Amino acid sequence: MLLAVKNLTKTFGNQVAVNDISFGIEEAKVVGFLGPNGAGKSTTMKMITGFIRPSTGSVSIHGIDVQEKEYEAKRLLGYLPENNPLYGSMYVRESLQYTGKLYRLPNLSKRIEEVIDMVGLGDEQQKKIKQLSKGYKQRLGIAQTLLHNPPVLILDEPTAGLDPNQLHEIRNLIRLLGQEKVVVLSTHIMQEVEAICQEVIFINKGKLVGNFSIEKRPEMFENKNLEQVFYDLTK
Fold it and tell me: Which element (helix H / strand E) includes 19?
């Protein structure tokens, strides 16, 4: 199992943010993680990546428990948070060098060239990050998640705020990555789910309300928005 989430729960005081969620992903694919604002998507992603500890439950990557062997597990993960934190005063290539040194990667210059080419940053690599458009900042964020070549990528709202051209290019990149890696991405956009995802996981009010392949349930997505799909799942 590439990614296994078992009975994951997170409480903040009396508030239950995530309530006993379980799912598993066995092979490379793009999985949409859907839910309205406040559903618990980002909290779940932060627990999967080890940034916050669950109240109960566990997450494992390739059988390695994220809490018990945090360092080992995180080497198998790439995480792009929703706010995509970047050092604006750094140059693109400098930022990748910094990230690569944190991972102590061998042959770092070669790997940086590979990742720059993979995400389409070639024309922007000599710029400062603060000079980049939103789309190229997202590409750089994805490049950082890819640098150590992890088998599992967790992307929180990776296409939020992009213009139509940027949106198309980032979706194509994610679709390509999903051929070799598990990619779990959160989104509010049903068209995005239909365009790039093979499987969907629905969460609402901290609870799992659906988990199935799009190919097996195409009727769930035909001419519907996110609210309509959730109504069909919970009625």
Answer: strand 15-25
